[in-house]
Amino acid sequence: MKRFNNINVRCVDVMEDEVVSDRYNYVLMSGLFNTNVCQSIAWTHSFIKKMFDLCLDSTSFNAISTFVNYEQDEMFYLDPLLTVDYCIRKLSPRVTLYHHNLPYNYTITVFKHHQWATVNDNK
Q1: Which of 1, 68, 79, 110 could serve as a FRET partner for 45 with CA atoms 20 to 30 Å apart?
Q2: Eight-class DSSP state of 1
């Protein structure tokens, strides 16, 4: 018996037009931002936004941190603080940053729905 027998996993290029009409509970990306192929911060932000637009619940991705003790030219380093700032300001205030799993690697999850509207009961 499968533990998750109703799961549907797809590997898609989120930047392609035919994926635009579909929505997914979770959109995950791992390792895409790691290799330096002359991508820009603006491109990574547009990719993250596209992932977020496609998700119903949350999107998660990882990257190599700028908090390292050395850098290699073939690797792409994303500042986790600037990336979290972008996600909070442009996508959702519900963001987690895990900067402890692998050396120099971090994972960010951005959640779609707010759990509460206000902390002030008078509003």
Answers
A1: 68
A2: -
Is 19 a residue whose pLDDT tops 80? no
Inside any domain, residue 44 = yes
Assigned domain for 105 exists: yes
Residue 15 covered by a domain? no
pLDDT in tens, 59-113: 999 999 999 999 999 999 999 999 999 999 999 999 999 999 888 999 999 999 7
- Residue in 28, 41, 8 with CA at minimum distance from that of residue 110: 28
Does 88 map to a domain?
yes
